[in-house]
Amino acid sequence: RSLFDEPLGIAVQGLSPRQQVTLRASLRDEAGELFEAHARYQAAEDGELDVARCPALPGGSFSGLEPMGLLWALQPRKAFWRLVKKDVQTPFLLRLEVLEGHGDDSGRLLAQAQHERAFLRDGVRRVPVRDGRIRATLFLPPGNGPFPGVIDLYGAGGGLPEYRACLLANYGFAVLALAFYGYEDLPKEMKEINLEYFEEAVNYMLQHNQVKGPGIGLLGFSKGGDLCISMASFLKGITATAVINGSVANVGAVVRYKDVTIPPLGVNPKRIKVSKSGIGDIIDALNNPLEGADRQSFIPLEKAECRFLFIVGQDDHNWKSEFFATEGSKRLQAHGKEKPEIICYPGAGHYIEPPFFPMCAASMHLLVGMPVIWGGEPKAHCEAQIDAWQQIQAFFHRHLKG
Ligand SMILES: CCCCCCCCCCCCCCCC(=O)SCCNC(=O)CCNC(=O)[C@H](O)C(C)(C)COP(=O)(O)OP(=O)(O)OC[C@H]1O[C@@H](n2cnc3c(N)ncnc32)[C@H](O)[C@@H]1OP(=O)(O)O
């Protein structure tokens, strides 16, 4: 049993010297969809095979020395499907098989093992939160704290993805996974965003006896990223904001706070490129927030009293994340604010998730209404996920120590 975001050691013993075998990894998600990866190996003289020391040979899901290849190369049988964990209280069951030979059809099964990839570290508490309008789940590390607090926001798609919040809580943070539409009695669609809802969540955390003040952190991905920037710009009590492939312009729905209204950035569907197989590329769909009326959508992040970290996948095809981070940095500095940290990852796409989530190349975009490519190259994307996870934790530890 190990945590999903921890590296794994995989070794086989008792093979014949230099025996050729194929290792296959597989898991079924909660919808029963199968994810698989396989690689071809040759045992050492002593009949041992340790994937941390033995390179995978060509012809499998990956090749070369890839200790975690069997995990980051997992791919779904079902097209446009992404690995998500809906119930963080149960592990994924990873199945490992050793098959004879390198044939394309599976050789004789020589050995197999099952390994649990869990999300909740022992002692981490999962607390559903239905406080006022807030629909969320709070994850608390073991002990009495108080702990540095973070609010975790995903993007367009609705629901309440808890898995990143839960994995972050394993490292000593009190993390609130917050839903904001398409969940229980929250608005069904993302039509209008009122920051007062998010203000309730910030105050809930600041008043919580196990959350250490004076300020909390925000972690936002994609649409959740620009929401975090709007929160940081207008709400009090936010000390650190980490944005993963977010936008510095408000996107997708109007944002309101008291007498302030930020219109969504304009979109030109004609700039959506659709492949012959009907997969969209929306990287150019949004207008430029530096031009004309679209300047109203640029979030006034210079009003924020927090430090910023921008995590950027340089092959992001959802939108121009690096451009957004750079323009956000220019705007902050033009107003005499601290330069934000910007960390760019070549070859990483839009869905930068916690470590060892396999890269999703394309899936249904619930705002666009068609499957879109997200960008990224699996190995580079995996390396980006591992580094970004460390950077995000270090950023919050640095700025939330109270
Ligand atoms: C043409 C004119 C356009 C004009 C307009 C253009 C706009 C062009 C500008 C860009 C504008 C971008 C602005 C937003 C930028 C982001 O935010 S990109 C999206 C980033 N994604 C996220 O942050 C993830 C958000 N959350 C989620 O995806 C959901 O919480 C989860 C994790 C899928 C679960 O939600 P849930 O409601 O419990 O899921 P569920 O009800 O089972 O499924 C809902 C739908 O999600 C999808 N889904 C569910 N599970 C999965 C899965 N494992 N794998 C894949 N899909 C899944 C399915 O489509 C499903 O629909 P059905 O097939 O059931 O009909």
From TrEMBL:
Single annotated GO MF: fatty acyl-CoA hydrolase activity
Superkingdom of this protein's organism: Eukaryota
Active-site residues, Swiss-Prot/TrEMBL: 222, 316, 350
Lipid metabolism among keywords: yes
Boundaries of every Acyl-CoA thioester hydrolase/bile acid-CoA amino acid N-acetyltransferase domain copy: 5-130
Record key words, sorted: Fatty acid metabolism, Lipid metabolism
Organism: Phasianus colchicus (Common pheasant)
InterPro entries recorded: AB_hydrolase_fold, Acyl-CoA_thioEstase_long-chain, BAAT_C, Thio_Ohase/aa_AcTrfase, Thio_Ohase/BAAT_N
Name of the protein in question: ACOT1 thioesterase
Keyword presence, Cytoplasm: no
GO biological process, one term: fatty acid metabolic process
Entry similarity comment: Belongs to the C/M/P thioester hydrolase family.
Every BAAT/Acyl-CoA thioester hydrolase C-terminal domain range: 193-401
Pfam families in the record: BAAT_C (PF08840), Bile_Hydr_Trans (PF04775)
